Amino acid sequence: MAFGITHHLESEEHQHLRHTVSKFVEKEVAPIAARMDEEDYFPEEVFKEMGQMGLTGMLIPEEYGGIGEDLLSAVIILEEISKESPALALSLLAHSILGAYPIVKYGAPQQKEKYLPALAEAKYIGALAYTEPGAGSDAAAISMSARREGDHYILNGQKTFITNGSVADVIITYAKTRPEMGRDGISAFIVERTFPGFSVSKKLNKMGMRGSPTALLFYDDVKVPSENLLGEENRGFYMVAKGFEVERITISAISIGIAERALRWMVNYSKERHAFGKPIRDFQLIQEKVARIGAKLETVKTYLYTLARYYDPRRDNRKESATVKYMAAKLGVEAGLEAIQVLGGNGYIREYPVERLMRDAKLMDIGAGTTEIMTIQIAKMIYREF
Length: 386
Hints:
The protein has helices spanning 12-29, 33-39, 44-53, 71-82, 86-106, 109-120, 236-272, 284-309, 318-343, 345-348, 354-362, 371-385, and strands at residues 126-129, 145-149, 152-163, 170-176, 186-192, 198-203, 214-225, 229-230, 274-275, 278-279. By secondary structure, the chain is α+β, with helices and mostly antiparallel strands.
């Protein structure tokens, strides 16, 4: 069941989807979540099963084998998976939201026909490559080059911190076709891992989100057919900027899933753990933690569901998407830390999942735009409005 008032924002189809995903997570994801973290293991067979269920087709139109462009459905899917494995949810987001959705929005008909059905079924795994060693929050500072030679583009450079980078078959890659034009000279390309010159240099060993592979990618004279240019040449920056809205709304669902699971651990453990002759739930400082996290969760989740339910791509949603991402990311980390505190020593050992939840939650303060960048974005929009 949806948490609190958000239940009223869901249709019967949304509620059925939540139930279906929840059962799948309980059966297939929960048993491997700890192994994913311990071994940094990506469960490709489970990912393929998600494809058979249609989960990897979120935001892909039904005509291409997806479940449709419904942002709230994507939020529900990611939230439910994140309650057991935020890492698996992150890989799903990178596949569907970052890898497939740009093709949905900007792809030519032949590109959609070629790639979307395979991505919807998880026959292909998707990713997006934008970040570089010298260009993260400063998105216009990428240095990867793409020069036109006949009916191909030649890509050179490297990308880092790429979710799914080591397992992806299709990578939406951004490069500068007109470097002298700055952000107005960036273009997007659909790159297949089999293109000569493309290689995975290194799989990165992370603090959290283990099991969601993150990699450093090299492009050494990668020959990309001109028909794999995505959208218009030199319009890539505006495509990715609009994509940030959807990414920041949907990635907030991962933080919500983490916070909800952490709160459940706080509640259940405080009922069972006794100190000084009574359950620790009776102590006011424990109640304060539960109340604070619960109140924030109710507020942020309601805002997230409202944004997802009524998202209009024709509007400027930068402030709203930055706001929910900022609030959700902070809440996920806070909930993880407070769950550890309530569980005490048990919260600090790996036999309990709350320390993993906290490690996973911290990425949300960094990925899809750091909390500092979200703060700047929100402030700019507020000053503009007033």
